[in-house]
TrEMBL record:
InterPro entries in alphabetical order: Znf_C2H2_type (IPR013087)
Keywords: Metal-binding, Zinc, Zinc-finger
Keyword Zinc appears in the UniProt entry: yes
Species of origin: Paramecium sonneborni
Residue ranges occupied by any C2H2-type domain in the UniProt entry: 199-227
Biased composition (Basic and acidic residues): 44-60
GO molecular-function terms, A-Z: zinc ion binding
Chain residue ranges for the region called Disordered: 33-67
Record protein name field: C2H2-type domain-containing protein
Length: 247
């Protein structure tokens, strides 16, 4: 029996003894009520037991969780692109802007957003679950939040109170469009910033009106991404071979 196994067994025995002691105190205690000090001691022991269980079972649980596709986290900074993306999300308008200034800056932000998130130039072995998780709804929420910040900083932006449901409406400064915030800010991106929608595919740059439609597109057209990627690579290699033979 090696030293690691002995330490592990010792921990298990200590846990069992503490559990037995706690159960004995609970089931056979003499006083009907216990003091605050005893309760605190018991709670501390329970916490220690829980921590010991996490230490013993943690690696196994983490191993199981890592198999689940929903645990891809795109908010953790893992590369230089992620740091640049976070810096992009931290951008704020400097003072009041004219509509032209607003649209120019938003156009730059959207282009940068697409470049930083693009998967076409990355040499990763991607599967559909990673691709779907990479298109996290949070990213597009941040993009919409930036859009709101910039649009709300337009000089003399008109806000109208709707008579029907008392909701706040916005008058577009560049056309006759009027709408609530959920459609007004996408309108600005779509109509006045080079026809951008909020939700874009990072593989083929197609735009969609909702995150649900985007996920449907990914499932339909990019579920065999690695297969298509390998096929394109083989075709390029074949063209190089053909060229070398002809020379």
């Amino acid at each position: 029996m090696n030293e690691d196994t002995q330490i592990l067994l010792k921990k298990i025995l200590e846990m069992q003894l503490e559990c037995t002691q706690l159960l004995t105190n609970i089931l056979f205690k003499k006083n009907a009520t216990s003091s605050d000090g005893e309760q605190q001691q018991q709670s501390k022991k329970f916490e220690q037991l829980e921590e010991s269980k996490i230490q013993l079972d943690g690696p196994k649980k983490r191993g199981r969780k890592s198999l689940k596709p929903t645990n891809y986290v795109d908010t953790v900074l893992q590369s230089e692109e992620d740091i640049k993306l976070q810096q992009l999300f931290q951008m704020t308008p400097k003072g009041l802007l004219s509509p032209e200034q607003c649209y120019k800056q938003l156009n730059m932000i959207v282009q940068k957003f697409r470049q930083l998130n693009s998967l076409t130039n990355k040499t990763l072995q991607l599967d559909i679950e990673y691709i779907k998780a990479y298109h996290s709804k949070n990213k597009f929420r941040y993009l919409r939040a930036i859009t709101k910040l910039f649009v709300q900083s337009i000089k003399n932006l008109k806000q109208i109170q709707s008579k029907d449901n008392s909701s706040e409406m916005f008058q577009c400064p560049s056309c006759e469009f009027i709408g609530i915030s959920s459609v007004f800010f996408p309108h600005i991106l779509k109509k006045h910033c080079q026809n951008y929608h909020i939700f874009c595919c990072f593989l083929c740059s197609k735009d969609y009106q909702s995150h649900t439609l985007l996920l449907g597109h990914l499932k339909k057209y990019h579920s065999n991404y690695r297969k298509h990627q390998n096929l394109e690579t083989n075709q390029q290699l074949q063209q190089i071979d053909d060229l070398s033979i002809s020379l």
